[in-house]
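Case study: Endoribonuclease YbeY.
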Amino acid sequence: MILTIDSDAPVAPELTALLRRVMAACLSVEGLPDNCCAYLRLTDDAEIHEINLSQRGVDRATDVLSFPSVNYRRGTARDNLPLLRREYDPEQGGMFLGDIVISLERARAQAAEYGHSPQREIGYLTAHALFHLMGYDHMVDSDRAVMRAREEAAMALVDLKRD
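Here is what the predicted structure looks like once written out:
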């Protein structure tokens, strides 16, 4: 499992390790092999706003964005390994799931709002985005319930359960 993290500011080694454990937990919950990779950009509200506008036409900042390499239907990524294998990234040495962008500004604000640590919020946003990369969505209640259950299962594996 390879999670490439990019940020203009230094990222604490503890946060890097946590986010890699979150990715490993998500892959485990979904039944995907360890040789998957993703790219994570940690940024601020201004940059994520710009990306949201240019890529989605949405003129506001958000907490997290995800851009899958393959558009799976919910729960089918593990059954479509030949399709995922076509996304093999030789530089990373893994099957590329996609790109994730997280606003650290928004994550810190949400952590304060929800009463938990910024690490828990950033971990959750990483899990949330990874499940989007694996075909999950939350546009309707039934899909939201399935996605939340997967996210919480992964978060429990890394001991980042809700307080």
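For the exam, be able to explain this: The chain has one domain: 2-157.
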